[in-house]
């Protein structure tokens, strides 16, 4: 999936805040910037992949073409947001479900890091 490169991909930018919130919820708010630079991109990559696995199959052929064109032109965060909400009526619910599942599994890992 394309969504692995978070430095140029704006399709799921809101997830960075979510991942940082996960750290806080699991007692890792005192991570150094160096540690955050190490762990945040890894977790973002995993959660973006999981979201992509759920969402991409739901796209119509036309929406898949739009997706490809957006990735090729590095669309803005606003363009991505509009795209996802128009292409998938259940976008918000689907993402929340993935994030809840992800939070449960990653919480176990983060608890081990904090120990």
What would you note in describing this structure?
- By secondary structure, this protein is mainly α.
- It has helices at residues 15-25, 33-55, 61-73, 77-87, 91-114.
- Helix 1 crosses helix 2, helix 2 (33-55) runs antiparallel to helix 5 and helix 3 runs antiparallel to helix 4.
- The model is unreliable at 1-8 (pLDDT under 50).
What ranges have pLDDT less than 50 throughout 5 or more consecutive residues? Answer: 1-8
Instruction: Summarize the helix and strand pattern as letters.
Output: HHHHH
Classification by helices and strands: mainly alpha
Outline, from the CA principal axes?
A: elongated
Helix content bin: over 70%
Total count of helical runs of at least 4 residues = 5
- Terminal residue distance: 33 Å
Number of β-strand runs = 0
Average pLDDT works out at: 79
Blueprint of the fold:
Elements: H1 15-25, H2 33-55, H3 61-73, H4 77-87, H5 91-114
Helix pairs in contact: 1-2, 2-5, 3-4
Based on the model shown, name its key terms.
5 helices; single chain; 71% helix; disordered N terminus; mainly alpha; 115 residues
Put the structure in a nutshell.
With 115 residues, the chain is mainly α.
